[in-house]
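We read letters as residues; the fold follows as tokens. A sample entry reads:
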Amino acid sequence: DDLEISEKEYGKIFSFVDFANVNKWFQNDNQDWNSQLLKMDEVLVIDLNKLKNFSDIFSEKTRVYYGEDPKNKKSLSFTYVIRKIFGKRSIITKDVQKIKHYIDSYEDLSSKVLITDKDNQKYIEIRKCNFDVEISVDAIKMINHYDTFCIFSGDADFVYLNNFLKKRGKKIIIVKGGYITTKLRKTADLIINAQRIKKYIAKIEKTKT
């Protein structure tokens, strides 16, 4: 009821979670869901169990898209956990791409890890793993099985997909963190700000020292 999502208005809802986007929603927050300041050694992170329970409140089906690093044990362990929580068939993964960005002396490197190549050139690794295409293809493949497309992402790349779905009679719910473009906003029947649902999907963790 708090979210203003009624079955009468939105029918059967399928949710698509772009986890790389969702995972950044609260990374710069300094307050919890009760507006209490976090301690210096505390951060807000996504609680996978809470995220699943939240999505289940209104979603007939939830699919989570997550980029994994097959050479990183922590990443593979995370994949195991998220599959256990959401169900193996509900998790779509692909390998993270690592792009070398060579730096110059003018760049602020205070928070970045420098790597030196065999030619003694310094660079940082930028990790990318976009799921715009996969989400769009899946949403279109399933188009006859839902009434409302719910996207957990504020990525402007979904404007084209949202407009396509709306022309075919679908409603659009956007769950987003931070700013979204005017064009994306206009495609939505309902927009839910992540700050409104912080207590339902986040938890407090101690920072690792």
User: Anything to note?
Assistant: The domain at 7-96+129-206 is CATH 3.40.50.1010 (Rossmann fold). The mean pLDDT is 89. DSSP finds eight helices and eleven strands in the chain.
